[in-house]
Amino acid sequence: MKQIKRVALAYSGGLDTSVIIPWLKENYGCEVIAVAVDVGQAEETTGLAEKAKRTGAIDFHLIDAKEEFASDYLFPVLRAGAVYEKDYLLGTSTARPLIALKQVEVALQTGCDALAHGCTGKGNDQVRFELAYQALAPELTIIAPWREWDIVSREDAIDYATSRGIPVSVTKKDPYSRDRNLWHLSHEGGPLEDPMFEPEESMFKLTVDPSLAPNEAEKVTIEFEAGIPVKVNGQKLSPARLVETLNQIGGRHGVGRVDLVENRLIGIKSRGVYETPGGTLLVTALRALESITLDRECAHEKERLATRYAELVYNGQWFSPLKEALDSFVETISSSVTGTVTLKLFKGAASVIGRQSPCSLYSQNLASFDMTGYDVTDSAGFIKLFGLPTRGRKRLSPIGVKSAREVASK
Question: Which of 12, 18, 38, 125 is an active site residue?
Fold first, then answer.
């Protein structure tokens, strides 16, 4: 085992990182500096300094990164249209590179020679943290306790914590693994590992049961500048405050619940239940605004590249040349994505009811059924040219192409 003098631990105060501090001291004989990064965990950051030091950390750093998280991480992902496997809005995936960045900064400032995280050996987060470490400080040793110790389950970790007098919020009666930040709250583990298990209503924290949401719809207006949200209902808000406001609005209407089985990077299928109320409103609104501000070619290419962008974020490749290149593409085509979208929220649904933009490509005259100002005879030539490959295929290679008579006979 390599000699380590001081390690910076990505610390949340949850079950895993709570037991890692004494484990590092017992097995590496090193000093531990706990680093917590506030990306919107709310009350979860309360009392962390005392808890970290009580369990053996020589120092504790709490970094408020909520505004940076929203402006430099969440909003670029939003603008890119990145959604993993059509449903996951990448809340946890987007937070990890920022947390790793702040952890590395503290490690370098305090003379650490190692970095540690509490990610399991079966999940995606180990990849996300360690790819960030390698990009930012490859000279530092990486310690991943879940790949080294004898603890093989959350129950084992609870027993380890209990034997050392470490208080943890997770119990064998409440086995959910949760990750909360400004963008979402995820729920995994426990009974959710059975894909047929219906989530208990008591599990949800950010959204009300849609059936119990208000019986009257609520309208909300979101304004964007170059693809970035800047106002809610006419009020200019900071990035973090804007997301928080939309979380409250969407949450009270039960908007943003997703129950999905996703494909982890390492090849395992995993079930997660996510609450992303504000993010769902923003994604819905931005798509509506893009529908009138992006031309067809840019819109279709962005949709194609958004899938790749989502994979990069999900796979932990935040600090990569390809992501930088895609960011440049998205920034360029989003220059015209400025305007306002109005949504109607009701019983878990967010419906677009209006969109407007000074950069709109939508022409009411052209879209109208009124033929004034449009030469309909142009269509004949267009259709004939557009159908040229079809006619050529029929003439040169009739095999596999059914004739009108064959189709009619059926």
Answer: 125
CATH for the 179-356 domain, from 3.90.1260.10, 3.10.20.340, 3.20.20.70, 3.30.70.60: 3.90.1260.10
Q: Name residues whose C-beta falls within 8 Å of residue 283's C-beta, 6 or more positions apart in sequence.
A: 78, 81, 83, 89
Is 209 a catalytic site residue? Answer: no
- Tens digits of per-residue pLDDT, 192-248? 999 999 999 999 999 999 999 999 999 999 999 999 999 999 999 999 999 999 999
C-alpha span between 129 and 115 (Å, rounded): 10
6-66+92-173: CATH number: 3.40.50.620
Token look-up 């084992």 returns 156
H or E segment at 270? strand 269-275
Q: Where in the chain is the domain with CATH 3.90.1260.10?
A: 179-356
SS3 126: helix
Q: Residue 386 class from Cβ within 10 Å (0-12 exposed, 13-18 middle, 19+ buried)?
A: exposed
Which is the catalytic residue, given 177, 334, 336, 357? Answer: 177
User: What does the alpha-carbon distance between residue 132 and residue 372 come to, in Å, rounded to a whole number?
Assistant: 58
User: What pLDDT is recorded for position 312?
Assistant: 98
Q: CATH 3.40.50.620 in the chain: give the residue spans.
A: 6-66+92-173
125 catalytic residue (yes or no): yes
pLDDT tens across 12-60, in order?
988 889 999 999 999 999 999 999 999 999 777 888 999 999 999 999 9
* Matching residue, tokens 């009811």: 353
Q: Say what the pTM is.
A: 0.91
Q: Exactly one of 96, 154, 178, 257 is catalytic; which is it?
A: 96
- What span, in angstroms and rounded, lies between the C-alpha atoms of 51 and 25? 16
308 carries an active-site annotation: no
Whether residue 16 lies in the annotated active site: yes
Q: Which of these is catalytic: 16, 18, 38, 257?
A: 16
